[in-house]
Write a structure and sequence with these properties.
The chain contains 8 helices and 15 strands. The radius of gyration is 21 Å and the shape is elongated. By secondary structure, it is α/β, with parallel strands linked by helices.
């Protein structure tokens, strides 16, 4: 079977070396080479590869950032890394394959064999990528930035600039003072990545940044809402009010 693939690595000699090794596998069709994470995101949407050979350590957007931005669009991904900890993490999750630099012909042959098996068996690659990404982010928590892709644009939002986050089905709306962003993520996952000293879930559908809290007002016995410094208001649930009082 033919396997459409792209190579993502910020070092040109690394891309050339991998392409050279893959020439021994005629079933692999290299559609593109990308020198950074942003180019990788763009390439995946343009050429729609089945497989992405992805370097992890890259400037600005690393390999995990690429997976984060691609979301459900991520193809089956093979980590290509010189760092053992990432390879071990991928192996422990049993989700994605990895190649440890310098790449051996024997190990690459095993990876290609696994790719064929996974593609023939219809493995849900976006789900595997999501599992691995979430495990990685949990280890990085609390995060200090949130990545959002809007069509061809990528936004890097400092968590300090986040005023509030609202749930919208499988998406969240990230409110900042300048604009709102929509990201494919569940609110519970976002909550687990944020600093609990700075953010509080005041409602099943709302997280606020405590640095922007201006006040709490009541409308009747059990109806409360928060006032934020940018003028916005959000309802507080009974459990949310308890959590808010505990952290204030």
């Amino acid at each position: 079977m033919d396997i459409k693939a792209i190579i993502v690595d910020d070092e040109s000699h690394a891309r050339q070396a991998l392409r050279h090794l893959l020439q021994a596998h005629s079933e692999i069709d290299i559609l593109a080479e990308c020198e950074n994470g942003l180019a990788a995101v763009k390439s995946v949407h343009e050429v729609k590869p089945q497989v992405m050979f992805l370097d992890i350590q890259m400037p600005k957007l690393d390999g995990f950032d690429v997976l984060d931005l691609l979301g459900d669009s991520a193809p089956l991904t093979v980590f290509v890394t010189a760092h053992d900890e990432y390879a071990i993490q991928a192996f422990e999750n049993n989700a994605l394959d990895y190649l440890l630099k310098p790449i051996s012909r024997e190990r690459l042959a095993l990876t290609v064999e696994r790719l064929e098996q996974r593609l023939q068996n219809g493995i849900d690659s976006p789900m595997l990528a999501d599992n691995l990404l979430h495990a990685h982010l949990q280890k990085q928590a609390p995060v200090n930035r949130i990545l959002v892709r809007d069509k061809g644009d990528v936004y890097v939002i400092a968590t300090a600039d986040v005023v509030a986050i609202e749930a919208a089905d499988d998406y969240v709306v990230i409110h900042t003072e300048k604009q709102n962003h929509i990201k494919q993520e569940r609110l519970g996952n976002m909550e687990s990545l944020l600093d609990a000293r700075q953010f509080c879930r005041i409602h099943r559908s709302t997280i606020i940044n405590l640095d922007y809290l201006s006040g709490i007002e009541s409308e009747g016995k059990d109806s409360r809402f928060v006032l934020l410094k940018n003028g916005s208001q959000f309802a507080i649930s009974r459990n949310g009010y308890s959590r808010l009082i505990q952290v204030l």
